[in-house]
């Protein structure tokens, strides 16, 4: 499985702390599970709806998938999701964009690969 870019949805405070420290070890759920959860462009909206419903302080971090040693593992609905066992090097980050809520309550995503 491959993708040009993969995506991490994070709370702004978590990402700002990562930028300040120069490393991202993961969000609390990532640390609990032992790997950093990512989504493909097609998976990200469902991830936002399922795990971040109503959250208005989110960022969408786009990451160069080729720069990481990913494991594609079966998760929600039997789909393969990209997982990173280890810290995310900030050098692999392509962009960081706000992920605002629309009036409908869904998140408005920027263009994704």
Automatic annotation (TrEMBL):
Pfam families: DUF952. It comes from the Bacteria. This is DUF952 domain-containing protein.
